[in-house]
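Marked as duplicate of an earlier ticket. Keeping the data here for the record.
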Amino acid sequence: MSAIIQSIEAILVDIPTIRPHKLSMTTMGVQTMVIVRVKDSDGLEGLGEATTIGGLAYGPESPESVKLTIDTYFKPLLLEQPADNFNTLRVRLNRAIRGNNLAKSAIETALLDLQGKRLNQPLHQLLGGAVHQHIPVLWTLASGDTQKDIDEAHKLIAEQRHCDFKLKIGSRALMDDVRHVAAIKAAVGDSASVRVDVNQAWDESTAAKGMAELQAAGIDLVEQPTPMKDHAALVRLSEKFHLPILADEAVADATDMFTLASAGFAGSVALKIAKAGGPLQALKVASVASAAGIGLYGGTLLEGTIGTAASLHAWATLDKLHWGTEMFGPLLMKDDIVETPLNFHHNGVTLPDGPGLGITLNEDKLGEYRRQ
């Protein structure tokens, strides 16, 4: 007999960031995670995480709404069900509950972690096996201060912790952002790749001007310059410039990926387990993108170690990550809630080993940062 799901707990955890993290729509000083614990009738526990950037300023799900959704709507559908049939449980949730992919991602991750522990296999083995054991990771320079960002970049390059950088822009006047970005690129030169993330802040005409300026400044990639639903603008901009575009908010699931690709988009896509609904769902997006000749990038919603590890297990199964990953979320937080943090080194991170995610909670730290 299969083990059944006996309990599901969703816990809000607040951890301060090491510095203000400035986005086009908000500035973060604390990251809030929803840690999900799923226990089965054999006494095993699976861990999951749902995290967003800046709460409702970023998207329709907040940490508080994720917890409420899991506690109120997911539990009755999942309790007393077999814990190892991911497909049946996903269909059960999707038939009863639309959207809420962050919450669904946390549940799918926890069930995969549980199954990995049951089979004594790392999560990537459940996904077909890892192609990579060390995965490149960029760093986001998001203080908003040009000299601070330059100093931070030089320090991280010297430490061999990161050699690719992303800049969050879009909250200031266009040319102020361009001057900020161009100064940082000039300071690091060819020693680092510099990309920008506009987080949907520009309309198409502003994006056209901005991309022309950024292209001249030697920037390597522009992420989501226009609003998420304006697929046509992304297509036109990708045709107009040789500066590549990375679609992020425009693509949540495999259907979004197919729609954008079939419209003629030529660029890359930021894969995120949270927006897709879990590691299995994110890999479906990757399959559609690869079939369409669209490049892959391992994206983050600034998850902590649990969500980051789940993403890494998925990204490790992909043959090629054309633009690397941004799985630096745990490094942005002042503390952690796990026994053994991820090993960031040589401009990347080592894939965790051990059953499931390969992650163990530190109960004392969890208690310290758990929202009361």
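See parent ticket for discussion. The chain has two domains: 5-121+363-369, 126-350.
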